[in-house]
Amino acid sequence: MPAVDPWIGPRGSAAQRLLQILRAHGPITRPEAARLTGMSLGGIRPLVAALIEDGQLVEQPANRRPDQGRGRPGNVLVPTLPDGVVVGLDFGHAHLSVAVADLLGEHLVHERCEVDVDRRSDDALDTAAELVRSLLRRSRRRASSVRRVVAGVPGPVDRAGRMRSSTIVPSWWQLSIADEIAARLRVDPAAVDIENDAHLGAIGEHRVGAAVGCSDLVYVKASHGLGTGLILAGQLYRGANGLTGEIGHAVVEAEGTLCRCGSRGCLETVVSIERVRQQIRFVSGSVEVDPLLAAEEHPAARRIVLEAGRTLGRALADVCNLLNPERIVLGGELAGAGQALVDGVAESIRRYAQPAIGETVVVLASLGERAQVVGATALAAARAREALWSVG
Ligand SMILES: [Zn+2]
Q: Could you tell me if residue 1 is inside a domain?
């Protein structure tokens, strides 16, 4: 190792402090950098110049962020990245998304395919490994350049990366998922993290989606299952064992339909995507590929989605009372039904949460089906940077 790590620079200097702030916050503007360092714009100017001269920083046009209004987005300061890439994997119940990204989490290439994840874990893992290899070739990166892998799975996984339900995604039960992925990609198992898919959706929407700038939010993934990801005080909240967010198994009908978790009347048996689609087909006689698309125009279809939103909102009202989030972001396939879902959820929160908390903003997710893989690469990139830059 060199005497002075090129990514750390001389210790204790004001430039070093500015660099650490940039590395922690990602691309930020000069005024933001001044605010975060507590210095004036004039004060940071020579530090920025020195770091750019030293090759540790670049200044480039910003990508427009959703929280910015009209007008030019301006320039941002970006710490120079070491070589290497990260891989994000998103295993849904019936699909797989893979992305290769740089160490800021920006996607270089990505791909999505249909695969029976629930019943054929081996096939899904083999397909994932093939896709990663193909994407690395397409982005002209070597397999050895992968610094971190994060994989999302659609079920409760503990901090050790093991599926904690034998029935929700049956073929993944007791599998050491990180070891399986590491062996196929020939990477260190310690560089592979497994995370619940709704948790990754929360990170994705928080980073570049409908919740940029929110420090406290609840992301809801309503697809074949129903889970939530919690960002509290700017950080993903995992609980004691990594198992937070399983709101889909809150019992809403004591004698209701049998759920795949073994209980009866769970929220996800009432607000499941299959059930909502089936009900819309029944009332609208729609032959559309996805009957959810009828929800905006067909009054009866809208009523069904509104009702599903109200039921979901009833459970989320308790979450609001407990956690006081700034925003609730509705994602997953059910969010394809649009504004009626938002209206139903917001109505129940106003009705059942404490009056002051009833003002919680409810919005649709903006990343759609990409939220999970964006969250996976963002988390992988953050961990890769942490490992690289905490050295010294
Ligand atoms: Zn259940």
A: no
